[in-house]
Amino acid sequence: MNRTILVTGASKGIGRAIAVRLARDKFSIVVHYGQDKAGAEETLQAVKDAGSDGRLITFDISDRALCRSTLEQDIAEYGIYRGIVLNAGIARDNAFPAMEDNDWDEVMSTNLDGFYNVLRPLVMPMVSARKGGRIVTLSSISGEMGNRGQVNYSAAKAGIIGATKALAIELAKRAITVNCVAPGVIETQMTSGLNLDDVTQIIPMRRMGSPDEVAAAVAFLCSDEASYITRQVISVNGGMA
After folding, report:
1. Is 153 tagged catalytic?
2. Predicted TM-score of the model (pTM)
3. Catalytic residue among 33, 78, 153, 228
4. What is the model's pLDDT at position 192?
């Protein structure tokens, strides 16, 4: 069975942790990056150090035509993926009255349109292969609860949840599971500027999560043991919701 999984946004943080954890589970990893080639190369080396193999792939997930051409070329050369993990995303935080048009548009075109842009070229080849598969999307606590200063990000991440649930229904009879992991406050570069004391007060477990804890949930959903789990949102947030 094909053991290849595409992980988008894998050059650092949660994406890198997911790629390395899946490599430990003996999946071959297609390490996607947008701009950070050096980070992606470090991830690929970590994948190899974990005992697996992989390759790099680059495209802007907000560019529909580029996504399609790059992904179609990749699967024509290497074959279909066993799994797809949609991790790539951006944040452009600001209070809604002060939000610029570009802040809204860029977050939507990357975080939400990226769902369509990446999956649209890949789903039918996966269906046609008749071998099942795994799709895992990454939402956020912001998509479940909403968050001050993140109307754009919350809207996009909530949209991912809805899209995930709908696609899961369509693909269930094909033995392709579609699930979502929604991290809370995770210790990455994105949260490095937060005041730790303020943040931990709103987390019942009184600490931030780690990328490895998110990666563990993703890895389970990609495993054979998760074959009867689909259309679910797994929250990794220390009890916030």
Report:
1. yes
2. 0.96
3. 153
4. 65
